[in-house]
Amino acid sequence: MDWFFILEKILLISGVLAISLIVAMYSTWGERKVAGVMQDRIGPNRAGFMGLLQPLADGGKLFFKEEIIPGSSNRFLFILGPSLAMMVACMTSAVIPWGDTLTIAGRTISLQVADINIGILYIFGVVSLGVYGIMLGGWASNNKYSLLASVRAASQIISYELAMGLSLIALLMMTGTLSIKEIVEQQRHSLWNVLYQPLGFLIFLVCSFAECNRTPFDLPEAENELNGGYHLEYSSMKLGFYLFAEYINMFISSALMSSLYFGGYSFPYMDSLGLSPNLTTILGTVALFVKIIFFLFFFMWVRWTIPRFRYDQLMRLGWNIMIPLALANMLITGAIVLYRSTH
Amino acid sequence: MNALISTALAGVVMMFAGLFIRNKQHIKFVAIAALLIVSVANLAELSTIEGGSRTVLGMVTVSHFSILFNAIAFGATLIYFLLSGSAFEKVGEHVADYFALVFFILSGITLASSFSNLLMLFLAIEIISIPQYILAGSNKRTPKSSEASLKYFLMGSFSTGILLMGITLIYGAAGTFNIEELGLGNGDINPLALCGIILLAFALSFKVSAAPFHFWTPDVYDGSPTVFTSFMATVVKAGSFIAFIRIFHGAFTGTNISAHWQLLLSLVTAATLLIGNFTAVFQQSVKRMLAYSSIAQAGFMLFAVISMNKYATQGIILYAAAYSVATIGVFAVTMKLKDYTFDGFNGLARTQPVLAVTTAIFVCSLAGIPLTAGFFAKYFVLTAAVQQGNLLWLVVLAVLCAAISAYYYFRVIIAMYFKQGEPATKEEITGGFKVMLVITAAIVILLGVFPGLLLNLI
Amino acid sequence: MLTVLLILIPLVAGLITFGLKGSGPKALALIASIASLAVTVAALFQFRTAPEALQLTASWIPQLGAQFSVGLDGMGMMLCLLTAISFLLIFIVINNRNYERANSFYGLMLLSQAGLIGVFSAYDALLFYVFWELALIPVYFLCSLWGGEKRIPVTFKFFVYTFAGSLLMLVGLIYIYLQLPDKSFSYAAFTSGVLSPKDQSWLFWLFFVAFAIKMPVFPFHTWQPDTYEQSPTPVTMVLSGIMVKMGLFGVIRWLLPVLPSGAYMWSEVAIVLSIIGIIYASCIAIVQSDFKRLIAYSSIAHIGLMSAAIFANNEQSLQGVLIQLFNHGINIIGLWIIVEIIQQRLKVKNMNELGGIATYAPNIAIFLVIISLANVALPLTNGFIGEFLMFSGLFQYNVWFMAVAGLGIILAAVYTLNMVQKVIFGEANTLTSTTTDLTGNELLALSVIVVIIIAMGVYPKPMLDLVSSTTELVNKVY
Amino acid sequence: MFTDTVLLSATTPFSYFPIVLQLCAALGFVGLTMFATHFLGPKRKTSDKLVTFESGIEQKGNARQPVAIKYFLTAILFVLFDVEVIFFYPYAVNFRELGWDGFLAMLLFVAFFLGGFFYILKKGALKWED
Amino acid sequence: MPVQYYIFLSIVLFCIGVMGVLMRRNAIIIFMCVELMLNAVNLLMVAFSKMWADAGRVDAAGAQIFVFFIMVVAAAEVAVGLAIIVMVYRKSQSVDINIMNRLKN
């Protein structure tokens, strides 16, 4: 047993989890700031410089709030719901390559927690567990609004998961692998996938919004229809978990989109700069985070730009437009790839 | 392959027919036309097969035998559509879907008659089973129907699990799913394989409702809409049997291995015969009687499984045809009556002589009276068992049970001819229906006088 | 060709009859039975000149080696004759009856005739089996539709008994078929003697049970008295006069030649069963007060003697059996005709309510006496020669068997004469004093029977000649 | 029958080990936080506080009533179509080797997929308006 | 890990499923037990596939394809089965299979 390996992985995991949490926290700050800019307001500015300590204040408040579990709820499931949501959010980051390898003291350290050859399937598998968190929470609350919201959320998430899965198939046809690391490496030496798969990316993007319950797909949490949705009865850190999970999911979605379509930790001319490998790796990781932050901003941008869909519009978009489009994209990609490889 | 593809396509066509055709009666005609096309496609393949069989991708082996069996299944279904097709409309709204499901079942049956890979066996069994769960529960007006459906579903999926475990264990022993390459009978017996075979035997006994795995049958058959019971108890059962026979004859024969499961299955056969017959004797409802009699008949068909010779294959072909056609006929008549008990048949001979005569012929065929198809069906499976050699005790048991079966089959005749009563029919008996019944009865008798008509084709 | 015609005439006539109305069925049945008799007589002549011409073999199910093979030997010829005569007599006697749904009645009667002739002429084991079953179905319907009060359970018992028996026989047939090298059902192949004695010893029981139920032999007889009692009398005539002969015929034609060592091995058991049947049936007959049941039990006793004689397996006994097949049929039909006549007039079956008929209907009395005497095998009646030969055959086999069976003769005399005494002599009561004498057609039928009784009693040689070929054949096989 | 696909040349079970580590870490984090907040917050429970919130009016009946069958239908359809999607994955990974034959087979599969899809659309299984 | 561990685990899971089906009365739980059985089979199938691949069979991936088919069929069964259970529940407000004994009469 290689103890250094384990130590290295533990460090990496802690780092990734910590960064996820920090990014999630500052996303809330970012969100309000973006909202402020878009609506010509200032946004949080009291706690610390430019309100930078606001997320800490919010987090602390959630910690010290009274914990309420409604009398008619199912206690076990009530606690399990947010825990599961948070767990799932924490698990998806395991297969995302945060960077290339670092060489420290003769050891080659990969900046990916686990490079498994079915990375994309793993993501799908874990993400689809996320719906349990919402479903359990909504059902366990024994509240009509929560239940309705959770049922809506479940329907929405699973509907868009179909189109999401289909849109990725076209990508797989081009790359021929399910390992995310390999997909990134391929882009390092050629053009970004988004240039070959614009439609696929678009579908994936839309579906990511729906998967994360982000506006314009935030029906499960529609506060003016459902009093806040599936986490209506939650308080304290349990509510915090739901909120955090959502932001972490956004973060991971952004990372995934960057990795699959925008070259991940690679950036143009990275191999021709003549820098040391370690430096290149660090620059790559920075590049990845730049991309992620752009996508996070995009999430917020959309939120304050587009109004919420009606439920039937949402389902129609998912089933009647996204799925056929994704299928068509897949078939066209397949035909072109085959044609080019045989001629 | 033609049959497989065309039935699946026909199913899809029927699904869409329901969307575009408003008139329910036209749907029936579309179904009949589709079935005719399927039959023709099936028979057209006969001439293209040289040297007995053709294997497609190591998954499906199309042979003369399988085509003939398909033809019988399609023929029986055609009779079923013609006799009982109009009863579909009374079950519920989604007539076209019911027809589509029947076509999907048929495609499962064609797969069952031609698989050459355990994967395809599994798929065949499932394609046969799953539409049946739906058909069983298709009458939404009565709780009986949905409960029958639930019961069938739970039992059916349970047996699927067992089937899969059997297949997995066999794979663990043999390293392949291809039936021809399994090679279990040679050399020492692998305990994994033996366990697998036993599990497979159990699961398939479940599917063909052989005792002691039969307990779901009466309830399900009784609860389901009669028109679907009639299909489930006949064509579908024959289809499951063909799968049973193909796998056990094709893969598990061999000097060492067959003795092990043969004893087990003979006991199952004996139990099936005894339970099926003795319980059928005490039934008051014709529908339930037919359910139990289908168990009893399964006992006879099991002979074909355990005897493993050419009579067995011929026998199962004849049995499938004879049993299906006759039972479909009896069910068709039963469905026209208001009262499904034996008393409901009282005096039918006086009011509806055509119905009574044809029913009498069907029932005689089921009892195995000579000059009806049922006689030669029984004859062949008994011959197969006698030739097998060490099953004579079972054969004697079987003929005694056959004599008992005459009791409950003839109760129908007694009720129709020897008792007084005014049987109430649900609807006007049309001339077309009578003509179809007479044609069906003629087929039964024709096969009873000249079984060679079918046997020549094998 | 004539043989096929013999089967076809009643078959086709029967099917046509179903579609007729009014008095059509009656007329057609009569015509068909006359035609049958004529063809039978023609066949009889052909049999004397060119017996091979009665054989016919046609392809039926080549896959199984089953053929449509029919033909008539001496025994078959004789039984066909018996069938033709019996059916004609039955139709004559019931000519003035009007049955409900006459078309079905006469149609089924004719179909059963076709089945019977098929059984007697089949030379292919599978064909034999098919006819064997087919003869049963119409009779089952006849009994169930036109029988007495308890007809449904009773005839059902009859049906299940015989059906179970015949299915056992089917198993035996299949087993033998599979043992044969050329996989054929033909008579020649079946009698080629390839079966090992071990196989024969158990196959014997499969066949014997089937035949024993039909005859019937103790302990397989329990269906018989009930069925005879409940059936309409014309059907009882068919049952007791001809159908029971199917069992005996089966033993002689199929069991003995196909399973000679089996029959040899179990002959004592078979004889003991038969003799128990004789004594048992006779004893019950003595205490019986029901007219029909008495005759039924007497029939069991007679058949028991025949069956015992068959298994005694020597030429004399066999000759006796063969001739008795015919004579017993004639006698018992005669008795049933009388029963039918009395019952139709007085509507009672209990002999204690009868008596003194001789005074009011002397013709009935005369015929009953003659036929009863033939039934107890008085010399110069037809019963005598057969029973004599059978007893001498049994004597050669085992003296004690003969002695016990002989007791049956004495008992037969007791109950038959008792019956005659009770029915026609003694005090007439108010009921019996209304008896009217025979009508024309009854007189005709009974006269024919009496003529046959006396002719056969005085000059049995033609009949003995007719069956000699069969006797020789069977003994050769032994 | 089947060729050796990428599925078989799998990475060793050991490459999944870090995932187990991460699972432990996530479990630990979630558990700890839950545990901590349980003790950190004030606890002043009153019966009114524990009543479920329904926009300020009193709760009527049990919330766990059957919801519209549409949701259920969507779930079922997802299960079916998702499994069909799963079939595309091994195909997509291997589709270069399978070539045009494989593509045609996949077209047939897609045709059936679309057949089912249009069927449910036509049947109105996804109509949310009513 | 040796394949025996997987076989043992799968058999245990399978037996739990079987016992559940035979002993529980709630239709949903029975159904879940059936799914457990199927998943035990899947696990075993993959284990055997690996075993035969290690033993040098080139077509051992077939078992993994089989697993796909099991999943598909299981999905179809889920679709049908849940629909049936919902239908029964809406009729009788219960998914206890004991109440279904009224079918017998």
Automatic annotation (TrEMBL), chain A:
Its EC number is 7.1.1.-. It is found in: Cell membrane; Membrane. It comes from the Bacteria. PROSITE patterns: COMPLEX1_ND1_2. It catalyses: a quinone + NADH + 5 H(+)(in) = a quinol + NAD(+) + 4 H(+)(out). Keywords: Cell membrane, Membrane, NAD, Oxidoreductase, Quinone, Translocase, Transmembrane, Transmembrane helix, Ubiquinone. NDH-1 is composed of 14 different subunits. Subunits NuoA, H, J, K, L, M, N constitute the membrane sector of the complex. This is NADH-quinone oxidoreductase subunit H. It comes from Chitinophaga tropicalis. The lineage of its organism: Bacteria, Pseudomonadati, Bacteroidota, Chitinophagia, Chitinophagales.
From TrEMBL, chain B:
It is found in: Cell membrane; Endomembrane system; Membrane. It holds the Pfam family Proton_antipo_M. One of its GO terms (cellular component) is endomembrane system. Residues 117-404 form the NADH:quinone oxidoreductase/Mrp antiporter transmembrane domain. It catalyses: a quinone + NADH + 5 H(+)(in) = a quinol + NAD(+) + 4 H(+)(out). Coiled coil: none annotated. The chain crosses the membrane at residues 6-22, 29-49, 61-83, 95-112, 118-138, 150-171, 191-215, 227-249, 261-282, 289-308, 314-333, 354-379, 391-410, 431-455. GO terms for molecular function: NADH dehydrogenase (quinone) (non-electrogenic) activity; NADH dehydrogenase (ubiquinone) activity; quinone binding. Keywords: Cell membrane, Membrane, NAD, Quinone, Translocase, Transmembrane, Transmembrane helix, Transport. NDH-1 is composed of 14 different subunits. Subunits NuoA, H, J, K, L, M, N constitute the membrane sector of the complex. Belongs to the complex I subunit 2 family. NDH-1 shuttles electrons from NADH, via FMN and iron-sulfur (Fe-S) centers, to quinones in the respiratory chain. The immediate electron acceptor for the enzyme in this species is believed to be a menaquinone. Couples the redox reaction to proton translocation (for every two electrons transferred, four hydrogen ions are translocated across the cytoplasmic membrane), and thus conserves the redox energy in a proton gradient. This is NADH-quinone oxidoreductase subunit N. The gene is nuoN.
UniProtKB/TrEMBL annotation, chain D:
Keywords: Cell membrane, Membrane, NAD, Quinone, Translocase, Transmembrane, Transmembrane helix, Transport. GO terms for molecular function: NADH dehydrogenase (quinone) (non-electrogenic) activity; NADH dehydrogenase (ubiquinone) activity; quinone binding. Its main location: membrane. Belongs to the complex I subunit 3 family. The chain crosses the membrane at residues 20-40, 71-91, 103-121. This is NADH-quinone oxidoreductase subunit A. It is a multi-pass membrane protein. Its EC number is 7.1.1.-. It is an enzyme of class 7 (translocase). It is found in: Cell membrane; Membrane. NDH-1 shuttles electrons from NADH, via FMN and iron-sulfur (Fe-S) centers, to quinones in the respiratory chain. The immediate electron acceptor for the enzyme in this species is believed to be a menaquinone. Couples the redox reaction to proton translocation (for every two electrons transferred, four hydrogen ions are translocated across the cytoplasmic membrane), and thus conserves the redox energy in a proton gradient. It comes from Chitinophaga tropicalis.
From TrEMBL, chain E:
GO terms for molecular function: NADH dehydrogenase (quinone) (non-electrogenic) activity; quinone binding. It is a multi-pass membrane protein. The chain crosses the membrane at residues 6-22, 29-53, 65-89. Its main location: membrane. Keywords: Cell membrane, Membrane, NAD, Oxidoreductase, Quinone, Translocase, Transmembrane, Transmembrane helix, Transport. It is an enzyme of class 7 (translocase). It is found in: Cell membrane; Membrane. Its EC number is 7.1.1.-. One of its GO terms (biological process) is ATP synthesis coupled electron transport. It comes from the Bacteria. It catalyses: a quinone + NADH + 5 H(+)(in) = a quinol + NAD(+) + 4 H(+)(out). Pfam families: Oxidored_q2. One of its GO terms (cellular component) is NADH dehydrogenase complex. InterPro entries: NADH_UbQ_OxRdtase_chain4L/K (IPR001133), NUOK/Mnh_C1-like (IPR039428). Belongs to the complex I subunit 4L family. NDH-1 is composed of 14 different subunits. Subunits NuoA, H, J, K, L, M, N constitute the membrane sector of the complex. NCBIfam families: PRK05715.1-2, PRK05715.1-3. This is NADH-quinone oxidoreductase subunit K.
